[in-house]
Design goal:
By secondary structure, the chain is mainly alpha-helical. Helices cover about 60% and strands about 0% of the residues. The protein contains five helices and no strands. The relative contact order is 0.12.
Length: about 90
């Protein structure tokens, strides 16, 4: 699922939606001992060195999200930042 927001009110809605989903995801991953201990954060922050561990953690997150009653957020792309580099052809 990809959502696109434009305009001041829509961007505020997107920010609040992101905060809400982040809270739900935090509760979901708190069930995982490694995530609760902060190991996931360390692996993600050191992805160049710990990419296999981070990949494993992302897989674990996807598995948890597949059983959750809500959609998760895996990332964010600001198209305005990419617009000048984009080639429509």
């Amino acid at each position: 699922l990809i959502k696109e927001y434009t305009g001041k009110l829509a961007l505020e809605l997107a920010r609040r939606e992101q905060i809400s989903i982040a809270r739900l995801q935090s509760e979901l991953v708190a069930q995982n001992e490694d995530a609760a201990d902060g190991d996931w954060i360390q692996a993600a922050a050191s992805r160049t060195v710990l990419s296999r561990k981070d990949d494993s953690n992302v897989g674990d997150l996807l598995e948890l999200l597949s059983k959750a009653p809500f959609l998760g957020i895996l990332g964010e792309v600001n198209l305005a930042e990419l617009e000048e580099d984009m080639d429509p052809n």
